[in-house]
From TrEMBL:
InterPro entries: WW_dom, WW_dom_sf
Pfam family name, one: WW
UniProt feature, compositional bias: Acidic residues: 27-41
Record-linked SUPFAM superfamilies: WW domain (SSF51045)
Native species: Wallemia ichthyophaga (strain EXF-994 / CBS 113033)
Highest taxon of source: Eukaryota
Protein name (record): WW domain-containing protein
Domain WW: 69-99
Residues in coiled coil: none
Length: 239
């Protein structure tokens, strides 16, 4: 292989590695229609003002505008339009690739992010709907919880120190398997009934004291039961 052929291949490889400064080719689609070329007739005062500031009336368009995801907008002076070129895929088109974004949906998401950002910076907007007090309906009404006993407004209970205390953790765990409220009501009723009986009959009426003879009898019965348990295997021995 001659030296001229090798030098030509080296130049071709160098041209492939080095990006070209020329703009990419135009799209194969049909070009958009040209704008109206008829210039309006200006009055003498307006024409004089425009001649004084020619830079303001004829501002050059930027040749290349770089966007996101590899897209760039390149100005075409013949059609006075921008066409779009993707540096990653090499695709060219006259249609704006970002024109299919729904502005209403985007504004709703923006307002939602701003709302939750003001509420708590640590809350993920995509997961905030899982929290009880952050649940909202499409009409915009906020759901709130109140204490069933005191009627007090419960706001952001998951952010208070009491929410992670040992007793509240135990209550939430037991409430998943048992009717904890019914148990607490029954316990409170029994306590109030016992307290009312003490107030009515006196403290001694609830738990009467035993006499000396009764204490002696109970001790003898307990000792006899213990002795019987120890010697029962001798009486019932089959051998």
């Amino acid at each position: 292989m001659s030296a001229s052929v090798l030098s030509q291949q080296a130049r071709d490889e160098r041209d492939l590695r080095v990006p070209s400064s020329t703009p990419p080719p135009l799209p194969e689609e049909e070009e958009p229609p040209l704008p109206d070329e008829e210039e309006p007739v200006l009055e003498q005062s307006e024409s004089a003002g425009s001649s004084e500031n020619p830079q303001q009336s004829h501002q050059p368009h930027p040749q290349i505008l770089h966007g996101k995801n590899g897209w760039s907008a390149i100005y075409e002076p013949n059609s006075s339009q921008y066409y779009y070129y993707n540096q990653s895929t090499g695709a060219t088109t006259w249609q704006n690739p970002f024109s299919n974004i729904n502005p209403q949906h985007d504004s709703i998401n923006t307002n939602k992010r701003e709302f939750y950002h003001e509420e708590d910076d640590a809350i993920d907007p995509e997961l905030a709907h899982l929290m009880p007090s952050s649940s909202t309906d499409p009409a915009g009404f906020v759901q709130a919880k109140f204490n069933a006993r005191t009627g007090q407004f419960n706001s952001k209970s998951w952010q208070t120190p009491e929410h992670v205390s040992a007793i509240n953790k135990s209550r939430r765990q037991q409430a998943a398997f048992f009717d904890l409220d019914a148990f607490e009501r029954q316990r409170n009723d029994d306590h109030m009934a016992k307290k009312a009986k003490i107030d009515e009959l006196g403290k001694d009426s609830v738990k009467p004291k035993l006499s000396k003879d009764q204490v002696k009898m109970y001790k003898e019965q307990k000792a006899a039961k213990r002795y019987k348990t120890k010697t029962d295997w001798l009486v019932n021995d089959d051998k």
